[in-house]
Design brief:
Strands 3-4-5-9-6 form a five-stranded mixed beta sheet. Among the domains are: 146 residues, Endopeptidase. Chain P, domain 1 (Glutathione S-transferase Yfyf (Class Pi), Chain A, domain 2); 66 residues, no CATH class; 163 residues, Neurolysin, domain 3 (Orthogonal Bundle). Helix 7 packs antiparallel against helix 11, helix 13 crosses helix 14 and helix 16 crosses helix 17. Strand 4 and strand 5 form a beta hairpin. The termini are far apart. It has 683 residues and is of the alpha+beta class. It has 28 helices and nine strands.
Length: 683
């Protein structure tokens, strides 16, 4: 990186190669990317035109490292696009996406380059490669094949155009969802309109109003505002307004995603058929544990059989309770969260508000760190030596407790802002693995949207938010504990339906008293969370299990339907969604509400034909956690097996082989149904 204006990406001057976020501005991304892509293309040309016969080193390893500087720039760009965006970055995405798509196409459609890889792949049994090297060779061969290397020139040109267009559409989809989310606010000025809302929520809403020079309270569609509003606001008309606004995001209006969805579907299907697959789902699932759409649908059907009758009973139970309190029935969707929360409070004699005082954000974070120490010997130490992309972000150095060796950097970005996408995610700025000639350490980031502290109160989390934090922290452990040589196989670079295992298994610990006692202390008194409250958390963990499970099944079915259907026969997004969702509805349909138009996982993220992965991985994590419970929550031997065979190996072997090595057998598919109390529903 020679140019002076690219100094922010000369990370070597900072401790542990940290990025100079304080110097990274939108203006530098395009010149930095262009310069590094030009350098990468020269490296690719040298590999392609090498007169020496292809070897693993001069072809596969050379390809693995050829574009590492360009990868750094593009990774940083897309991470910031979601974590701290602005109009400049959104506009740049429309230029950078095609640039990267064409760069990838130049490589993947290069006949001479593929010939070198193919020659090695055909001789792979004679190359004396180790397990990781064999997997890397296989990965590159299949990456080229699955991206058009075997097509003729005309079809390659067509594929290139498709990839370039798709690179623009997904960022546009996400941008529309974000803008539609930020566009709506509910300004309330009367006390009866905010009756029932917890004090912490009211304080945040009052602060939001004050920021806009308004009296009263301002609620938004950001999760820390929306979820508690739907659960606690007694004012039914306001709940309806919030529900309709949230459910209609990007469905009509200024940021309508319907045309984009149809374009994306047509292009994905066209791409899959060009490559010889029936549809996009078949293409995607070829490199998944599930392997085929049929197997996914069989898996989902098994869960549906258990979940649907249980969900119907859940809804009837809530309706009967609401009716007894004088509420109109049948319940509308904007009533369900409110009345289910009231019944939960009555049945288990506690509320989310009872839990919040024990879940001060800083304590929960320390608790997650302590779990990492007890299980895997990791230490987290906060440091202000590293630049960050926003003042809210905190940085931690991660070291090995026994050896004091540096393991990686952990960035924590927890509070919502208009520049941040909704939801929660973990991402890497640096993957663990070979970089600039040496095996480097990972730099990971966890991004969430938790309630900000106010002048009088710290950030107090709901139990669901604690769950979210531990989930994303599990992803970060997958990256931090990676011990691979090659970045493209390291950490979370695994089959999509396996990647949620390390994250979802962490959610299990927070339902156990032994774990909660580590960090759940009253933020004022320091008192440990009472045993009876822990028991209530445990007892209530199966509450609405059927309803929640069915919702995930419905979303997964919707994803699979979009990506197995003939896109030429779809003209109405809402009508198609209804055809799939109607049979799985347990609450009345509301006109003007649409899931697909804000379904960022499958149209703006990487979960297309993969949303089933959450339930698939749940079945793995339920089975894996049973092993911990049998031997002890912090059993060193089981933790070491999980670390060695799951967390450290990335995608260097097939995930089923890794799981069997950890567990001693294949996963029991009924473990999830047992955990949710749904096993008796299976016929």
């Amino acid at each position: 990186m020679a140019s002076q204006n690219l100094e922010p990406f000369k990370y070597l001057d900072l401790p542990h190669h940290a990025l100079a976020f304080d110097k990274i501005t939108p203006e530098i991304f395009l010149p930095a990317l262009k310069e590094n892509l030009a350098a990468a293309k020269k490296q690719i040309s040298r590999i392609r035109d090498d007169v020496e016969p292809a070897t693993f080193k001069n072809t596969i390893v050379a390809l693995e490292t050829a574009g590492e500087d360009a990868d750094l720039v593009s990774t940083t760009f897309y991470n910031l696009l979601h974590a701290h965006t602005n109009d400049q970055l959104q506009n740049l995405a429309l230029e950078i996406g095609p640039l990267l798509a064409n760069y990838a196409s130049d490589i993947l459609l290069d006949t001479k380059l593929f010939a070198r890889i193919k020659s090695l792949y055909e001789l792979r049994e004679k190359l004396n490669l180790n397990v990781e090297e064999s997997k890397l060779l296989e990965k590159y061969y299949l990456d080229f094949v699955r991206n058009g290397a075997l097509l003729d020139d005309e079809k390659k040109s067509e594929l290139r155009k498709i990839d370039e267009e798709l690179s623009k559409l997904s960022p546009q989809f996400s941008d529309n969802v974000l803008k539609a989310t930020n566009e709506f606010t509910l300004h309330l000025t009367k006390r009866d309109e905010v009756a029932g809302l917890p004090a912490i929520v009211l304080t945040a809403a009052a602060a939001a109003a004050k920021e806009k020079n308004l009296d009263g309270w301002l609620s938004t569609l950001q999760m820390p505002s929306y979820i508690p509003f739907m659960q606690f606001a007694a004012h039914r008309p306001s709940r309806e307004k919030m529900y309709r606004a949230y459910g209609s995001r990007a469905f009509g209006g200024n940021f309508d995603n319907r045309k984009l969805i149809l374009q994306i579907l047509k292009l994905r299907e066209k791409r899959a058929r060009l490559l010889g697959y029936k549809n996009h789902a078949e293409f995607m699932l070829e490199r998944r544990m599930a392997e085929s759409p049929d197997r996914v649908m069989q898996f989902l059907k098994r869960i549906e059989v258990a979940s649907l009758p249980a969900a119907r009973r859940d809804v009837k139970e809530i309706e009967d309770f609401a009716k007894s309190k004088g509420a109109p029935v049948p319940l509308e969707p904007w009533d369900f969260a409110y009345w289910s929360e009231r019944l939960k409070e009555k049945r288990f004699e506690f509320s989310q508000d009872d839990l919040r005082p024990y879940f001060k954000l800083e304590n929960v974070v320390k608790g997650a760190f302590e779990h990492a120490r007890r299980l895997y010997g990791l230490m987290f130490k906060e440091s202000d030596a590293y630049p960050v992309w926003h003042p809210d972000v905190k940085t931690f150095e991660v070291t090995d407790e026994k050896t004091n060796e540096f393991v990686g950097l952990f960035y924590a970005d927890f509070y919502p802002r208009e520049s941040k996408s909704g939801g929660a995610w973990m991402t890497n700025y640096f993957e663990q693995g070979l970089f600039h000639g040496q095996v480097d350490h990972p730099h990971v980031s966890v991004v969430c949207n938790f309630t900000k502290p106010s002048a009088n109160e710290p950030s107090l989390l709901t139990f669901d938010e604690v769950n979210t934090l531990f989930h994303e922290f599990g992803h970060s452990l997958h990256s931090l504990l990676s011990r691979c040589r090659y970045r493209s196989l390291a950490g979370t670079n695994v089959y999509w339906d396996f990647v949620e295992l390390p994250s979802q298994i962490m959610e299990n610990w927070i339902k156990e008293k032994e774990s909660l006692d580590i960090f759940a202390r009253h933020y004022k008194t320091g008192e440990l969370i009472p045993a009876d409250l822990v028991k209530k958390i445990k007892d209530s963990s199966r509450y609405l299990a059927g309803y929640q499970s069915l919702r995930q099944v419905m979303l997964a079915n919707l994803d699979m339907a979009w990506h197995t259907a003939d896109s030429s026969k779809i003209s109405d997004v809402a009508k198609f969604e209804d055809q799939v969702a109607d049979r799985l509805r347990v609450l009345p349909k509301v006109e003007g509400i649409n899931i697909t138009c804000s379904f960022s996982h499958i149209f703006g993220g990487g979960y297309s034909a993969g949303y089933y992965s959450y339930k698939w991985a749940e079945s793995l994590d339920a089975d894996a956690f049973e092993y911990f419970k049998e031997c002890g929550l912090f059993n060193k031997d089981v933790a070491q097996k999980f670390r060695e065979n799951i967390l450290s190996r990335g995608g260097t072997e097939h995930p089923m082989e890794l799981y069997i090595r950890f567990r001693g057998r294949e996963p029991d598919p009924d473990a999830l149904l047992r955990r949710d109390g749904l096993i008796d529903e299976v016929t």
